[in-house]
Write a structure and sequence with these properties.
Elements lengths: L1 E4 L9 E8 L5 E9 L2 H15 L7 H12 L5 H14 L1 H4 L9 H13 L10 H21 L26 H11 L3 H13 L3 H5 L6 E2 L4 E4 L2 E5 L2 E5 L8 E4 L2 H13 L14 H15 L8 H12 L4 H8 L4 H5 L7 H20 L1
Antiparallel strand pairs: 1-2, 2-3, 4-5, 5-8, 6-7
Length: about 375
Amino acid sequence: MAVYKDKWNGYSGTWRVACYYTDWKGIKRKHEKRGFKTKKAALEYEREFLAKKTKDVNMGFDTFIDIYMSDMRPQLKQSTMANKENIIETHIRSYFENKSLSEITPTDILQWQNCLLALRDDQGKGYSQTYLRTIQNQLNAIFNHAVKYYDLPKNPCSATKKMGKSKCKEMLFWTKDEYLKFSEVMKGKPVSYYAFQILYWTGIRSGELLALTKSDFDLEKHTLRINKNYQVVKGEGMITTPKTEKSNRVIELPQFLCEEMQDFFESIYKVDDESRIFVITKSYLHHEMDRGAKAAGVKRIRIHDLRHSSCALLIELGYSPIQIGERFGHESVTITERYSHLYPSVQRQMADKLDETFKENSKDG
């Protein structure tokens, strides 16, 4: 392997890299690259190229990020990959780019965390605890990938406390009465009204709502098919696969909602079976939530909290986590069980029922 002053026509005065490496099949190959302005730049390229090909953990962290991205891109949905790239480019790459993969220590991780924790916007607010945890998890994923596939001895993040929190302390929701007050004031805008009706009474995600077509509804059988998701990736709206495998599901609809959707379909001008029926954005839904909550005099919750509200209602009606999880497309029962605290009055009912059972048994004795 060598770096030469290039005398090839068109490259005069630049530097050339010519080196050999062994590919994944064990075949020895030659690699050349021209056009480097300085010998230093050519040597740096040669070092990083060979480190990448030989899985040398002394490669630059910046170089390994490119490898990681290349490895993950075929494995992930485009929207997921776009989110991953945004976090890495915004919060990770620039901080560690001057270090090699192997020399990053737990102390470096701690200092990186402190920098993120200290950041404030114009209003003096820092990142949310859940977003900080998302950033932390992404850095963990990069190092775990290096440990698993590129022989890095240890993930330096494992020796530090995780930054942020995995979920918010408070999960907001509306009771049925609160939602009915909200829906009443939304009737003046049919598109908004019907969109929120579906979100609340079915518990589907907003991306699933925005991807719905007329053909997804079978009003005679009272069912709604969920098999796609609408997302905006790098400014472009697109239909993607659902969030998880279990998100592909068929939901049973109540009769009143079928009748309402029939009215909605009849009001839409020349809607075909495969076009989106809610040609709106998540931003539009947020704006309407603001407007409706204020007009109805109910607390403002997030769009996703309508899913929490629907789940809470089903818990109050006595349905099990397994039954609710199937309707919501949850990957496991534990996800559904996170909602169990939303109706603490159920615990009182359980205790009262146990008391009745005990007293009945005492009488029998």
